[in-house]
Automatic annotation (TrEMBL):
One of its GO terms (cellular component) is CAAX-protein geranylgeranyltransferase complex. This is Protein prenyltransferase alpha subunit repeat-containing protein 1-B isoform G. Belongs to the protein prenyltransferase subunit alpha family. It comes from Glycine soja (Wild soybean). Pfam families: PPTA (PF01239). InterPro entries: Prenyl_trans_a. One of its GO terms (molecular function) is CAAX-protein geranylgeranyltransferase activity. It comes from the Eukaryota. Keywords: Prenyltransferase, Repeat, Transferase.
Length: 284
């Protein structure tokens, strides 16, 4: 209770001062976070400061960039810091499309070195969603060039994700990220909602499925002595089963036709025998 009162008094005092006081508050909370990187109060205070200066700060974009770098620095030494990553996701609402593209490019190298941390991939998904929201916004005029950029960004993300899956075996965060990307591909089949450029991303749905089944084949080799290889086989089989559940009925026949040569049920039962009854339900 006393802590909440102190925070309210501090906010009241700072809000009546000039812009430099808000900058000092950012420095102070950064010092607090260096000792307590998961402090909910410190992260909340930073958001209050940023929101307070967003309308009348000439170098606001520079502050956003430094905030993103701060989260990355803290996440490096404080693993699975959800509060820090939530703060970074919150910053996206203030970013321009150019900043979103920059963040997608800049955060890729960090994500590639921390493939077990789902937080960084969740951040990338939020960036991609911001990008797509800009495309579908009624209030904004989006050029064809931005549409093309969105398509290319998603295609690059899929290709990069596949590279990481093959390089780092048995990392669930990579497969969860692929589900998000694949969901967008599935939705892009509805031309009434998405742009025609999106549909051409993989030429047609059959090509996309063929690529995913090739990925399944490359990830379904069992070596009993290696737990990560078994996990890779389980994740790949579960991913294909997930695709089957997500696909709309008119497109389901294409998937069933392509997986008929794959003994998916045996692969699932072998990789996760404790879930065989659940798999049987979705296979039917």
């Amino acid at each position: 209770m006393l802590r909440c009162v102190r925070e309210r008094i501090r906010k009241l005092i700072v809000s009546k001062k000039k812009l430099s006081m808000f900058v000092d508050e950012l420095l102070l909370s950064e010092l607090v976070l260096s000792y307590s990187p998961k402090s909910e109060q410190a992260w909340n205070h930073r958001r209050w400061v940023i929101k307070s200066i967003s309308a009348n700060c000439s170098n606001f974009n520079e502050i956003l960039g430094k905030e993103s770098e701060l989260v990355e620095k803290i996440a490096e030494r404080s693993k699975m810091n959800y509060r820090a990553w939530n703060h970074r996701c919150w910053l996206i609402s203030y970013m321009t499309i150019e900043q979103v593209l920059y963040e997608l490019k800049k955060s890729r190298s960090w994500a590639a070195l921390h493939v077990a941390d789902n937080c960084c991939f969740h951040y990338r998904r939020r960036l991609l969603l911001k990008f797509m929201e800009n495309q579908n916004s009624v209030e904004e005029t989006v050029s064809y060039g931005h549409n093309a950029d969105i398509v290319q960004a998603l295609k690059d993300e899929l290709d990069w994700n596949e590279t990481l899956i093959k390089r780092y075996v048995g990392r669930e965060a990579l497969w969860l990220h692929r589900r998000f990307l694949s969901m967008w591909i599935l939705d892009s089949g509805d031309a009434s909602y998405h742009s025609k450029e999106a549909i051409s991303m993989h030429h047609d749905f059959g090509t996309f499925l063929q690529n995913e089944l090739c990925l399944l084949h490359s990830c379904s080799t069992f070596v009993d002595d290696f737990v990560d290889v078994q996990a890779q086989a389980a994740y790949s089989a579960c991913y294909i089963l997930w695709l089957k559940v997500q696909i709309a009925k008119p497109l389901e026949s294409k998937l069933l036709e392509k997986i008929k040569d794959v003994d998916l049920k045996t692969l699932l039962d072998k990789s996760c025998p404790e879930r065989s009854s659940l798999f049987n339900y979705f296979m039917n």
